[in-house]
Design goal:
5 strands, binds zinc ion, binds guanosine-5'-monophosphate, HIT family, subunit A, alpha+beta
């Protein structure tokens, strides 16, 4: 399958990883829209949250919370784009973790 996030998960394409376990990875977005912009995703190829069970979505969010705590983010945004009409470009489920603004929260379009 010609999926960029599958290839990153399988280390066929490099990325700046910040987390990995048996089933999930997190890495820095190549075009950051915030001072901290990390993508959290399951290694399993699922097109979007529409294909995912609640438990998997929950674990994805928990990993993002853990990374945000490690990075000492005071506040942040968590975004799932769902489908092309929702702004999703890469058709492999991923959660955007955005934060690190110094003053007021940034307005982001991801
Ligand atoms: P989407 O719009 O699908 O929700 O978000 C896809 C995100 O993946 C975008 O923010 C984009 O910058 C990021 N992205 C696309 N290709 C790559 C890549 O090859 N490496 C990394 N690290 N991020 C990517
Ligand atoms: Zn994939």
């Amino acid at each position: 399958m010609n999926c960029i996030f599958c290839k990153i998960s399988q280390k066929e394409i490099p990325a700046q990883f910040v987390f990995e376990d048996e089933k999930f990875v997190a890495f820095e977005d190549i075009h950051p829209k915030a001072p901290v912009h990390i993508l959290v995703l399951p290694k399993e190829h699922l097109a979007s949250v529409l294909e995912a069970k609640g438990e998997l979505i929950g674990t994805t969010v928990e990993i993002a919370k853990k990374i945000a705590a490690e990075k000492k983010l005071e506040g942040y945004k968590l975004v799932f784009n769902v489908g092309p009409a929702g702004g999703q470009v890469v058709e492999h489920l991923h959660l955007h973790l955005l934060g690190g603004w110094r003053e007021k929260p940034g307005k982001v379009e991801v």
